[in-house]
Design a protein that fits this description.
Layout: E1 5-14, E2 17-27, E3 32-36, H1 43-50, E4 58-63, H2 71-74, E5 77-80, H3 92-102, H4 107-120, H5 136-148, E6 154-158, H6 166-181, E7 185-189, H7 193-199, E8 202-207, E9 210-216, H8 217-221, E10 225-231, H9 236-242, E11 247-254, E12 257-264, H10 270-279, E13 284-289, H11 294-304
Parallel strand pairs: 3-7, 3-8, 5-6, 6-7
Antiparallel strand pairs: 1-2, 1-4, 8-9, 10-12, 10-13, 11-12
Helix pairs in contact: 3-4, 4-5
């Protein structure tokens, strides 16, 4: 199996200052990989090395089994930069035709493909309009169309939803899911961690050029799940049975209703709590899992690394 991305101890130094340090990553085909960190963490420099735009100081990088300097490899990459600068005097159709020809696509293929990608990114029938009349969100959609136009095997997206409204963000998630279903790998930079949590298979947190933690979403967010239970009463026999599921911690009353937190080993046990409460003849008012989300983990890691601001 050819990996989409493989780096080993990748390092980049600018003017004696390390920007990326000992970065080792693997991204498989059809995998959506989130690359997360605060500003100045080395994310953009990493992307530039993956694209062959910047040479590493040391270490190795392979993209789609070859060097990102290889033109044949580059033709299989799609890229949407955060700070894009498009040829705004062109129409969307001319813009896509221009980039498609640079990728080696034929005129006949482009004639079919351009309307497809415009439809896919939510710009159907807008190909004849000049880009200088597009809103920022429409330009971002046009950039995304450019990134997927040549049917790449790996797409690198830098803040792809930053200028989009909630509907646009949902559409981008659907596009990413569609790419994954086709076996296309996606390398995603985003500050919208809730978006990343919904689409990514694996995530790496970086800070000051180093990986703080990486793993699958299950590895990072799985594990113990504290669940808050609120009822009209908590008789000893109910607490005893809840204790068979995990450790208990009594909580202060809220609105006259006692509470207990049950530390479950996994969220598959949550329905068991409701069953136990129901059998005890107790009135259940709240059953609230308090899962760690990606944003909480991000803030915890950045704080632990000694960075005060994100």
């Amino acid at each position: 199996m050819t990996l989409a991305i493989e780096t080993h101890q990748l390092r980049k130094v600018y003017k004696g200052r390390p920007v990326v340090q000992d970065l080792s990553l693997t991204v498989g085909p059809g995998e959506v990989f989130g690359f997360l960190g605060p500003n100045g963490a080395g994310k953009s420099t990493t992307v530039k090395m993956l694209l062959g735009l910047v040479m590493p100081t040391s270490g190795s990088v392979q993209v789609l089994g070859g060097s990102p300097q290889n033109p044949d490899v580059r033709r299989q990459l799609g890229f949407l930069p955060e700070q894009f600068r498009f040829q705004t005097w062109m129409t969307a159709r001319e813009f896509l035709n221009f980039h498609g020809r640079l990728s080696g696509m034929s005129a006949s293929d482009l004639q079919t493909r351009i309307p497809e990608v415009l439809e896919q990114v939510g710009l159907p029938g807008r190909g004849g309009e000049a880009l200088n009349g597009y809103s920022k969100g429409m330009l971002q959609r046009a950039g995304l169309a450019q990134a997927i136009l040549a049917r790449p095997r790996l797409v690198l997206l830098d803040e792809p939803t930053s200028a989009l409204d909630p509907i646009g963000r949902v559409e981008v998630r659907e596009i990413i899911a569609g790419l994954k279903a086709q076996g296309v790998a996606v390398f995603l930079n985003s500050h919208l961690l809730s978006e990343v949590e919904q689409v990514c298979d694996h995530v790496a947190f970086v800070q000051k050029g180093q990986v703080l933690r990486q793993g699958s979403m299950q590895q990072l967010l799985g594990g113990a799940v504290p669940v808050e239970v609120r009822a009209d009463r908590l008789p000893p026999e109910l607490l005893s049975e809840l204790g068979t599921l995990g450790t208990l911690e009594l909580l202060p009353e809220q609105g006259g209703r006692p509470g207990v937190q049950v530390q479950l080993s996994n969220d598959a046990l949550i329905p068991r709590i409701a069953q136990i409460v129901s059998r005890a003849g107790v009135q259940l008012y709240a059953l609230t899992p308090h899962r760690t989300d990606l944003e909480a983990l991000f803030l915890e890691l950045i704080d632990t690394s000694g960075e005060g601001q994100v």
